[in-house]
Amino acid sequence: MSKADTTRPFLKLTHQGALIALQAAVAKAEELGVPQNITIVDDGGNMLAYIRMDNAKLLSAETSKSKAITAASHRQPTSRLDPKLEVKLAIAAGGRLTNLEGGLPIVIDGVCVGAVGVGSGTGAQDVEVARAALKGIGAEDQIP
User: Fold this and answer.
1) In the prediction, which pLDDT does 54 show?
2) Contact of 45 with 69, CB cutoff 8 Å
3) Other Cβ atoms closer than 10 A to 43
């Protein structure tokens, strides 16, 4: 058996990339005047970067993490999960998955390398801040 049969090369989001994405998201949140909780995870849902901006909603810290994990796990924006399965998925995943807007996968060269989750504004504001994170590192935007 060769290495080609048992391994594969892949892209990996670095901590530096996560910090750049985080800075871009914070800049957009400041521009909007909406303090946010912003979480960046790798493709396995492991946290690489997080910030709770001054005056961001406390409980939105948890939703931003859940949004990032969901987007990484499903390789799609959080709002695209089937609403009929939302409760079942949340229970099966220990409450870690959500259908709330504001979670976007970080896709580079067609490969999901992580995700960003944003919470504390309206759904539209959360998505706008998440999209700024993607733009900050040149990731593909999955929202038309």
Assistant:
1) 98
2) yes
3) 19
What DSSP line would sit under 57-75, residue for residue? -STHHHHHHHHHHHHHHHT
Burial class, 116, CB count within 10 angstroms (exposed 0-12 / middle 13-18 / buried 19+): buried
Instruction: Identify the residue with better confidence: 95 or 128.
Output: 128
Q: CB burial class (10 A; 0-12, 13-18, 19+) of residue 88?
A: exposed
Check whether 102 has a pLDDT greater than 80.
Answer: yes
| pLDDT (0 to 100) of residue 5 | 79
d(CA 94, CA 113): 23
CATH architecture of 13-136: 2-Layer Sandwich (3.30)
Q: Give domain limits for the chain.
A: 13-136
Angle at 115 between CA 139 and CA 121, to 5 degrees: 100
